[in-house]
Design a protein that fits this description.
By secondary structure, this protein is of the alpha/beta class. It has twelve helices and 13 strands. The protein folds into two domains: 214 residues, Rossmann fold (3-Layer(aba) Sandwich), CATH 3.40.50.2000; 131 residues, Rossmann fold, CATH 3.40.50. The protein is globular. The C terminus is likely disordered.
Length: 371
């Protein structure tokens, strides 16, 4: 039995949640799956897959600004991020030897590659967008990112190369078609096929992301929901014990497992959430109406929210000016996402190709040794 290490970035929960369908597929293929990571994202996967082996990798610990420039705040932390990438690369080499790892699948952990075994890198941002006043930095940022990605055997893009694309310009540099070393693997979501359920809730608010912005988001939205008179529920995005049974007096949970969260989303008329890419993929699968509040200064989320609003799919409002009454009224004129049936054929093809290429390389190497 081959050993596969799946290593999602600890920058929020989205990298971990979109690895869930990959982990499930690997288990179905009878691989021995190990999960490497840190922080809340690792905790979430421990709850989803308690039977698996978990390994510690260095934490990035990104610190978001309470106010001011996101770019300048991230730039000040670059030395820390570079050290983390270097450290995770060294630690990966030790883990490969210690646990006889045969393959690595990294979701945005740039250091989780090895010259000795095949490795796949997952990203939806082959075209990293910068704020307008820092647009001149874009080519440099993309160039550095591409140099790091080329260290991997393959790059997987969780999107479609056609008009079903959700990432839009975030993946534009791949020109919406596969090229050497790049494969589109479709919409990656932890949720199964959508089900028609009676709507017990008007609004479900899903909080996520690094502090302090997660708490700021919660303080703004939760108070306005309390005053709205609507039926609401808040998933706080912090970890203690999952809530599985909720009565009419329960208005929040710290976090929920995938099956429970899917049920709650399906029982809700509208979802308030960050416009992170993984959340967009999840809501697109379930066909929900949404009100998005991008993390201030996070260009990717701002782009996705603006694009979905321009298409008439989902309303968005900036966190600083968020007013629930106004947002609720505006959102009524947006269509919401169109539900989609689970279709993992692109992911299956990518996994088949990845392991087939690895086996062919291994066979060729053995032949060369016998020459």
């Amino acid at each position: 039995m081959k050993n596969v290490l799946v290593a999602p970035l600890d920058w929020g929960l989205g990298h971990a949640t979109r690895c869930i369908p990959i982990i499930r597929s690997l288990i179905e293929r009878r691989f021995n799956v190990l999960i490497g990571g840190s922080g809340d994202s690792l905790t979430l996967l421990k709850h989803e897959f308690p039977q698996l082996t978990f390994l510690s990798l260095p934490a990035y610990h990104p610190v978001y600004p309470t106010s001011g420039s996101m770019v300048l705040k991230m730039a000040a932390q670059l030395p820390k991020f570079v050290r983390t990438i270097q450290l995770e690369h060294r630690e990966l080499q030790a883990l490969i030897s210690q646990h006889q790892i045969d393959f690595v699948i990294s979701d945005n952990r740039y250091g989780c590659w090895s010259p000795s075994i095949p490795s796949a890198f997952i990203t939806h941002q082959s075209n990293i967008l910068m704020p307008k006043r820092f647009g001149w930095l874009g080519p440099l940022v993309r160039s550095v990112s591409n140099v790091l990605i080329r260290k991997f055997s393959i790059c997987w893009v969780p999107d479609y190369p056609d008009d079903r694309s959700l990432a839009g310009l975030l993946g534009a540099r791949r020109e919406r078609g596969e090229s050497h070393g790049v494969k589109f693997i479709g919409n990656l979501t932890r949720f199964g096929d959508p089900k028609q359920r009676e709507q017990h809730l008007d609004v479900l608010c899903i909080l996520s992301g690094p502090e302090p912005q997660r708490s700021i988001f919660e303080a703004i939205v939760a108070e306005q929901l309390r005053q709205s008179g609507l039926r609401y529920f808040v998933v706080r995005g912090v970890f203690s014990s999952p809530v599985k049974e909720m009565d009419e007096t329960t208005r929040h949970a710290d976090f929920l497992l995938s099956g429970d969260l899917q049920t709650l989303i399906e029982q809700s008329y509208c979802v308030i959430a960050r416009s992170g890419y993984s959340t967009v993929m999840d809501l697109a699968r379930l066909g929900k109406k949404a009100i998005f509040i991008p993390t201030p200064g996070q260009t990717e989320q701002e782009y996705l929210a603006t694009t979905l609003k321009s298409k008439g799919i989902a309303f968005f409002m900036e966190q600083e000016y968020f007013n629930f009454t106004s947002a609720w009224k505006e959102s009524q004129s947006y269509t919401g996402f169109k539900a989609s049936v689970c279709d993992n054929h692109l992911l299956s093809e990518a996994l088949d190709h990845f392991f087939r290429e690895a086996n062919q390389s291994e066979s060729l190497h053995k032949q060369e040794l016998h020459v």
